[in-house]
């Protein structure tokens, strides 16, 4: 049985939603910056990813979360990407109010912009590519996160081995329905920061409005069990093949 089928069975047994936020202070704070090395096909250095918590806005009512990714010249013949994504999050609920991603991909300028607050039965994403604008609307099936806020929401979550959860996701110019489970045993992950104990999250992302039978995209995240609750590593799929991200540097972390 596939991971997606097992996850679907687990979620069918109980109401599905996001895991609750753990009590106490958030594991991240303003000024935190995390740097990741990207690898393609498990061997080729592909670029870097930076995640950052920006200074609060609107008197502390909004916290901007930023991701910046850039590919190396070593894979320029496969993919050339320079991208920035911003998620504006309510620090009281950790729900994103707006998400915007902008990229230069093989010379093509692309933009995606979604207003996520206040919650409504549908989510509309405004697109721009090659100077042409369009919009698409998707049915909301659960709480909506985006590619950046997901990392920080899961870091703050109360996770336990065997947990199952689901949410909707705006990422990579698409709308997804995500089903996820937490592995039943903690795992040690070797990084430049040392050997860290983590919880692995296995997720299946199903593209909304896709034809029946469309295969989901599998994503795996490793979040440390220490008080910093760092995203230690991630593995997923892009057009050019499997890509992984490994944490190599931290700055301004609350617990390190």
Q: In a nutshell, what does this entry contain?
A:
The protein has 256 residues and is mainly β. The protein contains 2 helices and 16 strands. The protein has a 16-stranded mixed sheet that branches.
Describe the protein in words.
By secondary structure, the chain is mainly beta. The protein has helices at residues 3-12, 149-155; strands at 33-40, 44-53, 63-71, 81-89, 96-105, 108-115, 122-129, 132-139, 144-146, 164-171, 174-182, 187-191, 194-207, 217-224, 231-238, 241-251. The chain has a 16-stranded mixed sheet that branches. Strand 10 (164-171) and strand 11 (174-182) form a beta hairpin. It is globular, with a radius of gyration of 18 Å. The protein starts with a helix and ends in a 5-residue tail after the last strand.
Largest sheet, strands/sense/barrel? 16 strands, mixed
State Rg: 18 Å
Mean pLDDT: 90
Classification by helices and strands: mainly beta
Question: Roughly how much helix do the residues carry, as a percent range?
Answer: under 10%
Low-confidence stretches: 6-14
Distinct helical segment count: 2
So what's the overall shape? globular
Give the topology.
Elements: H1 3-12, E1 33-40, E2 44-53, E3 63-71, E4 81-89, E5 96-105, E6 108-115, E7 122-129, E8 132-139, E9 144-146, H2 149-155, E10 164-171, E11 174-182, E12 187-191, E13 194-207, E14 217-224, E15 231-238, E16 241-251
Parallel strand pairs: 9-10
Antiparallel strand pairs: 1-2, 1-16, 2-3, 3-4, 4-5, 5-6, 6-7, 7-8, 10-11, 11-13, 12-13, 13-14, 14-15, 15-16
